[in-house]
UniProtKB/TrEMBL annotation:
Source organism of this protein record: Demequina mangrovi
Any one of the GO BP annotations: negative regulation of DNA-templated transcription
Protein name according to UniProt: Transcriptional repressor NrdR
Function statement: Negatively regulates transcription of bacterial ribonucleotide reductase nrd genes and operons by binding to NrdR-boxes.
UniProt xrefs under PROSITE patterns: ATP_CONE
ZnF (unnamed) ranges: 3-34
Domain ATP-cone: 46-136
Length: 161
């Protein structure tokens, strides 16, 4: 690993620690030439298998650009989108696979997008799940309503005891 300050071709690891969730290792390094210190982060590589059979590196930017259209005109900030992309990556990495299908990324986007904005969620789901008819929208909205009603009364079970 070369030094980002002086481009010296060598550096020395002075500390390594694993992230709390075990998904990455941070290494503190020191350059023997200029004495400056820097950190590297090591994660397992994650590739995406596209429908045309080509694989490419997973990219949070692509998640953001993929949902941006669905969020047009909605109260969703760039920070919200960055956080969404982070949640999607964490969800995918939690599965422990080194390669995932592009379709699975769509599935991983749906839950955090729904938390963020239900209209954007419906727009994204309508494209991703190829809604054809008004009935498809009605069914998706009915599901949202039913699940919202359940989560609005979290203490119902304990109250009835
Ligand atoms: Zn250096």
């Amino acid at each position: 690993m070369h030094c980002p300050f002086c481009r010296n071709g060598d550096s020395r690891v002075i500390d390594s620690r694993t992230a709390d969730d075990g998904s990455s290792i941070r290494r503190r390094r020191e350059c023997p030439a200029c004495g400056k210190r820097f950190t590297t982060v090591e994660t397992a590589s994650l590739s995406v298998l596209k429908r045309n059979g080509v694989t490419e590196a997973f990219s949070r930017d692509k998640i953001v650009s993929g949902v941006k259209k669905a969020c047009q005109g909605r109260p969703v900030s760039d920070d919200d989108l960055a956080l969404l992309a982070q949640k999607v990556e964490e969800a995918i990495r939690a599965n422990g696979q080194a390669e995932i299908n592009a379709l699975e990324i769509g599935l991983a986007i749906l839950p955090p997008l729904r938390e963020l904005d239900e209209i954007a969620y419906l727009r994204f789901a309508s494209v991703y799940q190829a809604f054809d008819t008004l009935e498809d929208f009605e069914a998706a909205i009915a599901r949202l309503r039913a699940e919202d009603a359940v989560s609005d009364r979290p203490s119902a079970s304990s109250a009835s005891e």
